[in-house]
Amino acid sequence: MGIIANINTVLKTIPKYVTLVAVSKTKQNSAILEAYQIGQRIFGENKVQELVQKAEELPKDINWHMIGHLQTNKVKFIAPFVSLIHGVDSVKLLKEINKRAKQNNRVIDCLLQVHIAAESTKFGFDIPEVNEAINNAKEFQNIRIVGLMGMATFTDNKQQVIQEFNSLKVVFDNLKNEHITILSMGMSGDYQLAIEQGSTMVRVGSAIFGHRN
Ligand SMILES: *Cc1c(COP(=O)(O)O)cnc(C)c1O
Q1: Which one, of 117, 124, 170, lies nearest residue 149 by Cα?
Q2: Ligand 1 lined by 69 (C-beta under 6 Å)
Q3: 47 ligand 1 Cβ < 6 A
Q4: CA–CA distance from 100 to each of 74, 107, 125, 144, 187 (Å)?
Q5: Angstrom distance (rounded) from CA 123 to CA 55
Q6: What is the second-level CATH architecture of the domain 3-208?
Q7: Which of 187, 188, 191, 213 to mutate to test the pocket of ligand 1 (most atoms within 8 A of CB)?
Q8: Closest ligand 1 atom to 187 CA
Q9: What DSSP designation does 125 have?
Q10: 3-state SS string over 167-190?
Q11: What is the pLDDT of residues 131-183, one digit of tens each?
């Protein structure tokens, strides 16, 4: 199947209130433009250099989301244009995003990444640290924390994935207010489970663009 058919299939299977981030990492501009031509405007990338280059080359009305691990020393490259940073996992990073946002006269929307997977390699705040991080962020005037992001363990164990997504949903429900409205969870392999557990934003790559090398 082609990109257009894939994206239509994904859109048909997600409710209207769920936002689709088309994860275009490693994919060519031509692939992104195919999705763009049928109306997709939100794309996610996980490498700063690739994100910057694509943002320069592609239409200016694309909303670019940084979904990967972000190093402090690279924030400055995306601060002028990024529309949402999903993977904020330290107060140090929040501080740097605030500084660079200010230099660009912007307020940058961020999601705090929360560690919910059993794998120790996945980044993020532990659940008990989330409240404190949000309190710390209140002093940063050029950042808006608009929600949470998490990744489940890569496993065939459906119950485990459900349980991990649910643990994030519980944290989210305790924080939810007029500013904190986004729960980013779910990828190609598990976005349906994530939506059942309360996701409002899914990050789907291979189910749209095909497998990556
Ligand atoms: C690559 C990536 C995705 C998309 O993964 P697929 O399995 O291809 O849908 C989602 N979220 C993050 C953080 C990623 O790095």
Answers
A1: 124
A2: no
A3: no
A4: 10, 10, 22, 13, 29
A5: 25
A6: Alpha-Beta Barrel (3.20)
A7: 187
A8: 9
A9: B
A10: HHHHHHHHHCCCCCCEEECCCCCC
A11: 999 999 999 999 999 999 999 999 999 999 999 999 999 999 999 999 999 99
How far, in Å, from the CA of 203 to the mean position of ligand 1? 6
CA of 141 to the centre of ligand 1 (A): 30
- 22 touches 54 (CB < 8 A): no
Q: What confidence tens digit (pLDDT) does each residue in 114-128 have?
A: 999 988 766 899 999
Beta carbon of 203 within 6 Å of any ligand 1 atom:
yes
Q: Give residue-wise pLDDT tens across range 45-96.
A: 999 999 999 999 999 999 999 999 999 999 999 999 999 999 999 999 999 9
H or E stretch at 209: helix 206-209
Q: How far is the CA of 91 from the centre of ligand 1 (A)?
A: 24
Q: Is 205 in the pocket of ligand 1 (CB under 6 A)?
A: yes
Q: Is the CB of 206 under 6 A from ligand 1?
A: yes
Give every CB contact of residue 64 below 8 A, 6+ residues apart in sequence: 43, 44, 45, 51, 54, 55, 78, 81, 82, 83
Q: 């349980």: which residue's tokens? A: 163
Domain boundaries, the chain: 3-208
